[in-house]
Amino acid sequence: MKDSRGCRERDITFLKAQAKLVRVEILKMLAVAGSGHTGGSLSAADIVTALYFSKMRHRPDNPSWRERDRFILSKGHAAPLLYAVLAMTGYFDISMLKTLRKLGSPLQGHPCSRALPGVEISTGSLGQGLSVSNGIAIGLKMDNLSSRVYCLLGDGEIQEGQVWEAAMTAAHYRLDNLCAIVDLNGLQIDGPVSKVKAIEPVASKWSAFGWNVIEIDGHNWEEILNAFDEAETVKGKPSVVLARTIKGKGVSFFEGKVEYHGVAPTQEELERALKELEVNG
Amino acid sequence: MDKRLHSTEQKTGVKEEAIATRDAYGEALLELGKERKDVVVLDADLSGSTKTGKFAKAFPDRFFNIGIAEQDMVGTAAGLALSGKLPFASTFAVFETGRAWEQIRQAVCYSNLNVKLVATHGGISVGEDGASHQATEDVTLMRVLPNMTVIVPSDGYETRQVINAIADYYGPVYVRLGRAKVPAVMPDDYEFTIGKAYTFYMGRDANIVAMGIMVSIALEAAKILKQEGIDTGVVNMSTVKPLDTETLLNTAKACRLIVTAEEHSIIGGLGSAVSEFLSENHPTYLYRIGIKDAFGCSGTPEELLKLYGLTADDIVRTIKEALGR
Predict the structure, then answer these.
(1) Is the Cβ of B75 closer than 8 Å to some Cβ of chain A?
(2) ipTM of this model?
(3) Interface of B with A in 14-33 (CB under 8 A)
(4) How many angstroms separate the CA of residue B82 from the nearest CA in chain A?
(5) Any idea where the domains of chain B sit in the sequence?
(6) How much of chain B is helix, strand and coil, in % rounded to 5?
């Protein structure tokens, strides 16, 4: 899956269609599972679709390909999103998605690297993915590999102190092969991030920590693709893409609703949601 | 104390000088770094004390100081392991196992990554720095984690062998080392194997199952007891997990009393591991020598070992009382 900058318009049309299907798969698997994280999977769906279907070099038939770009889902609760893109790009059969959260399934409630090829490292406990990404990025540089590392964090997640320890480390070691993405959907379990514990000003925080900061609308395809391209050209420091998103994006009655952080759609909600995606897609 | 340990109870002589296990680690790591290019070392601003500084000086491109950020250090080590490196991450045992416990659980053990956590300053023999820097719960914290191997070497010679052995083994390992010098106790023909205990001598009355610095103290106690007619053996259970249950079972069957000895809380450490196994498989009269649900404090290592009941005399008294002698 390579970057096709020359035909961006066609690329975006393709990505839009894929993102819609990704959302459909997310909703379907969550409805079957009866539990899981809907809001944060939908908010980051466009970004992760752009990575797996366009930006990243990876080989679904060879998940441990040495020269692949790495994706670390630090916000591990968005597992349904990761599973959807992995299945749709061919890491495993799409029918496996209906086993999400079931006994014996490789699709654990939060990603488990030992259970599912394509998952780089087990996540779910927040705040840890960026440190791991740093380690991978350092290792890639030592081996003179040009692979890049993408790490997706939640906005509530950056309340974890370890994120800022890792932010310092990445800047100190000049990890320009690393690109963090913060999914700024504005909501966490207990309510708006600004009410639970304010994280703003986010951009100046990362900037102060020595990062190249790229602010985008996380649902604008042009901006998403440009951000990843820009990050790749910045040398000597890591880049962070601060993506303003809408929690539950794509399904009107989930959008901006804190209640759908950790709740799966009912069968009735699923049917309504699928209809909506069909109409709006 | 050195000379008395080189007793007839040992199978062969010991030629080594007393050395802190952390110093042996520093040397072993340097040698390993020369042999293997995949070895990388991380520290959290304590490389002078943990002795990873030697490696850092020789191989600056393979040494990563993560600063005072233990959680980040463990996560970074996990990432390096994912890149095919062999990371050794070191700091003081309190911070490594306590501060970063959940990072070890999630990023290292759950993903079963090849990360070696080698911590120094285990136990109260840290001395003057006091309780904040004396790890007395670290073995408990590491032993409870699935996929984790836990090793507590008894002297410098064993430490060097442990470092080489874990480099050849795939999986998460925790090694607990000490700050203070310890007498050499292991015979020169000793070969460390993960999961294999070493029996110095099998006693008919009592056997002391010890780890770390308590091995030399147990040997001292056994010598005193033997002089008093109490046949006491010593087992170096340097691998606390997986426990050498075969040796343990044979040892328990051979005698009337088992005493465990650890410079660590008696809750969850070696004493617990031995008790858990024997209770289910061969109920044995047993006492645990160790720190009895307490924090350490400032003092010299010798003063502290005495204060917390970890001397040879304490072991002797415990065994005599237990046997009614």
Answers:
(1) yes
(2) 0.95
(3) none
(4) 6
(5) 19-182, 188-320
(6) 45, 20, 35
